[in-house]
Specification:
Blueprint: H1 2-22, H2 29-32, E1 33-41, E2 46-49, H3 50-60, E3 66-75, E4 78-86, E5 91-101, E6 104-114
Parallel strand pairs: 1-6
Antiparallel strand pairs: 1-2, 3-4, 4-5, 5-6
Length: 131
C-alpha cells in the first residue's frame, strides 16, 4: 500500500509541475525539485545541474510552452509523462522521465520531437491519431 501511495504522490508532483509551467508560475518548481536535481536533455546534449541553473533557464525562457499531458505512468520512484508542448507555433511530442527522491524530483530526462506529417506510403497500415 505504501508503494501505491508514493506513486500517487509522485504523479501529483508531476501534475503540479505541468500546471506551474502552464500557469507561468515557474517559482513553484523550487517546491517540486531537489536543490541538487539534474535535468538532462540528451538531444541537445545539455545537462542542467542544480536549482540556480534551472531557475536561470526557466526565468530566461523566450516562450514557455503550454503542456498537454497525454499519459502518466509510475512505479516506485519513477514517473514517465507523455505530453505535447505547444510553443505557439511548433508543437513537440515529448517524453519526460522523472526520478524521485523523498517525494521530490531528483532527475528529469526529456526527449522531444517536432510533430510531422505521417508519410503516405504507410497509410494502409496505420490509423492517424494526431497532428
Amino acid at each position: 500500500m505504501r508503494i501505491m501511495a508514493q506513486e500517487n504522490v509522485n504523479e501529483n508532483v508531476v501534475k503540479r509541475l505541468i500546471a506551474c509551467i502552464n500557469d507561468r508560475h515557474v517559482e513553484v518548481m523550487d517546491e517540486l525539485f531537489h536543490d541538487d536535481a539534474v535535468m538532462h536533455w540528451p538531444q541537445s546534449g545539455e545537462i542542467v545541474r542544480g536549482a540556480e541553473n534551472r531557475r536561470g533557464i526557466y526565468n530566461a525562457f523566450p516562450q514557455l510552452p503550454t503542456i498537454t499531458p497525454r499519459r502518466l505512468l509510475s512505479g516506485g520512484n519513477l514517473v514517465v509523462a507523455e505530453a505535447s508542448l505547444d510553443y505557439g507555433g511548433p508543437t513537440y511530442e515529448t517524453v519526460f522521465i522523472f526520478e524521485f527522491r523523498d517525494g521530490r524530483i531528483a532527475k528529469e530526462t526529456a526527449y522531444w520531437s517536432e510533430s510531422f506529417q505521417a508519410p503516405q506510403w504507410r497509410s494502409e497500415w496505420v490509423e492517424i491519431s494526431g497532428p
